[in-house]
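Internal tracking record. Fields below are filled automatically when a chain is submitted to the structure queue. Please do not edit lines marked as system-generated. If the sequence contains nonstandard residues, flag them in the REMARKS field before resubmitting.
Queue: standard
Priority: normal
Entity type: single polypeptide chain
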Amino acid sequence: MTHPIVIIGAGMAGYTLARELRKASPEAEIVIVSADDAVNYAKPTLSNALVGNKAPEKIALADAAKMTETLKASILAHAKVESIDVAGHTLAIQFDNGVTQQQAYSKLVLAVGADQVRLPIQGDGAQDIYTVNSLIDYKKFREHLDRVQDKRVLLIGAGLIGCEFANDLQATGHSVVLVDLAPFPLGRLLPVDTAKMFQQQLEHSGMQFQLATTVQAVFKVGEQYRVELANGESHLVDVVLSAIGLRPNLELAQAAEIGTSRGIVTNQLLETNQPDIYALGDCAEVEGHLLPYVMPLMQQARALAKTLSGEPTPVHYPAMPVAVKTPAAPLVVLPEPTNLDVTWQNEVLEDGMIARALDEAGELRGFVLLGATAGKQRLALAKTVPDLMAVG
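SYSTEM-GENERATED OUTPUT FOLLOWS
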């Protein structure tokens, strides 16, 4: 008896793989296991839905029933994988109604994503801090946001997602304060000079920054919240949103003795150290690279679909610039490889800056384009950057 290919996770990674797999293997039996309602949506749209005038119910593209029909797959919604029996090639699944089920697999794909990191914050309002890592989370956040009148929002985290949400809120009439422990926004992605100019452009749009500090406590004050910072300042706001970063979900893999480091460790075929088990998406650390962005995910899904269909195909990463959704300060980033020492070379423009990351040989390995004028060089510069992870 042939068992199905099982994908754990019905997020962007899981559904993209299922689509690619259906193209490569029209007759393959596919089972998708989802801990939530398995609604299909594009997660990147959450951080600019306000500007796009998209209510949460309009963000959903298809429910589980529609995806079952489209993918010709079996979708198990509200089903949590409790454990993986590596030797027996089976999963133990528990549904929300308490029913348990064993699910056999021929190949297993972990597309379990990553969760928002939460800070240990004191105060009786700390439990009311929102994180947005799914459409379900976003619905709760929007419901609260739509109820308040003054629309003052404090965002914990001035990284990529925090800045995108801040731009979306500021552009739709909200007053926004960004708090981050780093001295500049996007501190992990931008060189200092570019980060300073990026911050200035966002401040010009009305955003406020509290940097080199962190949130210590959140207290309820009627229907509002007093947020106390480590630097002694405090802010009275209506909503607190935390977006300080993602941590790959590793518990299920670790319990099955699947190798992990920062993410679930795989080779270029996206194979883990356990037979017939693969990983992709935000949870996957491919040959040392952990890239929680859309384009790497697409590259992984296309390659893995072929591999699972009997045509072993290593994933490779061409230059994949990331467009940050901050129209108040247009930004495109191609992160430099973390295993290289680079020197940043800056070119100041009238409306922004081009920052080039050069390796010891003077070769371009990454770049930052700030401003509309700089952004026009995105494609030309990307063509000159060598693949981050080439085939062969």
